Amino acid sequence: MTVIQGALFAAVLAYASVIDIRTRTVPNRIHALLLLTGLLTVSLSSVLWALTLFSVFFIVALATDIGGGDVKLAGMCGFVLGKAAVPSLLAGLTAFVVFTVMYCILRRKPIKGASLPLVPFIAFGCLLFLMNWSG
């Protein structure tokens, strides 16, 4: 990953986070921007990681409230980060679960049916990778 690619990736994730917080959607233009970012250093490995993570998130989405935009975003994270997307997404999902549980406890709301944006947490996990990658 180049410095330019890392900066573009972070900027697009920040933009996607703002949109998801405001609208609970991830527009296709976000995925297109991430695709272009990933094309800067595309490899067979990045394509395979994109397909793998998209598939895993798709299967999970069938049984949960994860939206299609989040599924596509996970695939694009795999495309840009390759195998590093796995710990990045796990960190983001862990932060999401902890935040959701705390939010529901403090608001005295049931966890089932809680609707919170996922993209900011995915972005958080990916940014942790970028900070570690850059030294």
Defining key terms:
135 residues, 6 helices, mainly alpha
Descriptive account of the structure:
This protein is mainly α and 135 residues long. The chain has helices at 3-23, 28-38, 44-63, 68-81, 85-107, 119-133. The longest helix has 23 residues, at 85-107. It has one domain (3-133). The chain is globular, with a radius of gyration of 14 Å. Helix 1 (3-23) runs antiparallel to helix 6 (119-133), helix 2 runs parallel beside helix 4 (68-81) and helix 3 (44-63) packs antiparallel against helix 4 (68-81).
Oligomer: single chain
Please, how many helices? 6
DSSP E strands, number: 0
Which secondary-structure class do the elements indicate?
Answer: mainly alpha
Which geometry do the CA atoms define? globular
Topology order in helix (H) and strand (E) letters: HHHHHH
Strand proportion, as a percent range, falls in under 5%
Helix amount: over 70%
Rg from alpha-carbon coordinates: 14 Å
Largest sheet: none
Mean pLDDT across every amino acid position: 93
Short description:
The chain is mainly alpha-helical.
Question: What's the layout of helices and strands?
Answer:
Elements: H1 3-23, H2 28-38, H3 44-63, H4 68-81, H5 85-107, H6 119-133
Helix pairs in contact: 1-2, 1-6, 2-4, 3-4, 5-6
